[in-house]
Design brief:
alpha/beta, Rossmann fold, 2 domains, 6-stranded parallel β-sheet
Length: about 450
């Protein structure tokens, strides 16, 4: 299977810059002390654009080797074989790769609707697993993946790579310390102007290969071939993806949930639609999602017909506390202090207005400004997985953490589809006020596929 990136290929230079620092030094040191037989032998399932990016992140480290590749497209495998500077075996069926005795761990970077089946089969085959985000297409899939990973005792890492950025860990620790005061709002944006054509309106037609189309669909419903439904643009269709609410939203949800120290929301509501762009997408071009995290609102704004920054700092995320606001960028964070007053606000009724003449509040800066910077390159996340495979420790974004963040975004899509305010029981993973919404926590797989 193949998949394209959540981010454009323009992110590659950043990875190259990173390789000149910590990762390059790590790779060289491992190459000096480890022989070929000591390197972790990895198989890659899905080596399209995002799959290639993750593969490159692992190649930064000298204590691993690519022994197998799997994809429906031969050119993708040929390209990644050249990158690996090895002679990996090539498979078009992922189960054949899992049968390969030389494969000790697998990296899964296929479309979202394939993750659950491939992850479960990999765990049951005794492989440790790095799986790209979003973890699953449904909440039920994600919970089953958690159960299988725990039963099989596999080391797992979900590709929410910000979890391995040291500067972002510092930011999360700082927020959890209470320094910002009570957090009332935390927000992230996906801003991209796709107006007017979007992904276009190519007609349905015969696929280049009937077998490849059938294999690509997998458990998803059988529908006529359309070029927008395959590879990167599958994210615009609900049979294969949760749209940008899960694609980008899971990154923001995970970071904000991490900083807040919260596991699950208690309610969610979402509004949005296809308001401006004329293409054949199913997902909205404009969307606002809001979760109640027991005293804190978490918001995801998807504006795909306008790309103006969401705040004056042009930050990806913001966390608003009573003492200050943290702005988070891809490579830095900063805290802007609030000014608090020592007196209550005056009454504004006409009768009491004269009393305001004596209202002399004092405003004091509530905290000192703070900042941090660094990198959240995927290579750090790959390093953490390699280390944990050796030590059998829990990864920075293990299957449970990845499931919690993915599930929060998935229930947002259910709120949008049902046009509902949904109350959520995070322990039972059920809605408590809408039976129809609970029926959307999973979907019937196309025969012969079954959730293991």
């Amino acid at each position: 299977m193949s998949v394209d990136p959540s981010h454009s290929s323009s992110s590659t230079p950043t990875r190259r810059q990173f390789s000149k620092t910590a990762a390059a030094a790590t790779a060289l040191s491992y190459q000096r002390i480890l022989g070929a037989n000591d390197r972790l032998q990895i198989g890659y399932i899905g080596v399209g654009n995002r799959g290639t990016q993750v593969h490159e992140a692992f190649l930064e480290h000298g204590d691993q080797v690519t022994v197998a590749l799997c994809d429906l497209r031969e050119p993708y495998m040929d390209h990644n074989a050249r990158l690996s500077r090895a002679t990996p075996r090539k498979y078009k069926e992922y189960k054949k790769l899992l049968e390969d005795k030389d494969v000790q761990a697998v990296v899964i970077a296929t479309p979202d609707h394939w993750h659950a089946l491939q992850f479960i089969d990999a765990c049951n085959a005794g492989k440790d697993v790095y799986v790209e985000k979003p973890l699953s297409l449904t909440v039920v899939e994600g919970r089953r993946m958690v159960e299988v990973a725990e039963k099989s005792k596999r080391v797992t890492q979900v590709g929410i790579h910000r979890r391995s950025g040291k500067f972002l860990r510092e930011a999360a620790d700082y927020v959890r310390s209470g320094a910002l005061g009570h957090i009332t709002v935390a927000k992230g944006w996906h801003l991209q102007n796709e107006f007017p054509a979007g992904v276009g309106t190519p007609p349905d037609g015969p696929p280049p290969s009937e077998w490849e189309w059938d294999q690509w669909l997998g458990p998803a419903p059988k529908v006529p071939y359309n070029q927008n439904r395959m590879y990167y643009r599958f994210r615009w269709f609900y049979n294969y993806s949760g749209g940008q609410l899960t694609n980008f939203g899971v990154h923001y949800m995970d970071m904000l949930r991490w900083a807040l120290g919260k596991e699950s929301p208690r309610a969610v509501t979402v509004m949005g639609g296809k308001y401006a762009i004329k293409d054949n997408r199913e997902i909205p071009d404009t969307l606002e999602a809001l979760w109640d995290f027991d005293g804190t609102m978490v918001i995801f704004s998807q504006y795909n017909a306008n790309a103006a920054p969401g705040n004056a700092q042009a930050a990806d995320m913001e966390i608003r506390g009573t003492k200050g606001t943290m702005y988070l960028h891809s490579n830095r964070w900063e805290v802007v202090p609030e000014k608090n007053t020592d007196l209550p606000l005056p009454a504004r009724s006409p009768v009491e207005r004269d009393l305001e003449k004596n209202y002399r509040p004092s405003f004091k800066v509530a905290m000192e400004p703070r900042s941090g910077k660094g990198s959240a390159d995927t290579a750090f996340h790959a390093r953490n997985f390699l280390d944990c495979v050796k030590s059998r420790a829990k990864c920075n974004c293990d299957i449970l953490e990845g499931h919690r963040s993915t599930a929060a975004t998935l229930i947002g899509n259910i709120a949008l589809k049902t046009k509902s305010y949904l109350e959520w029981d995070g322990k039972a993973e059920k809605f408590t006020n809408n039976a129809a919404a609970n029926r959307l926590l999973h979907y019937p797989y196309r025969a012969p596929y079954k959730l293991g």
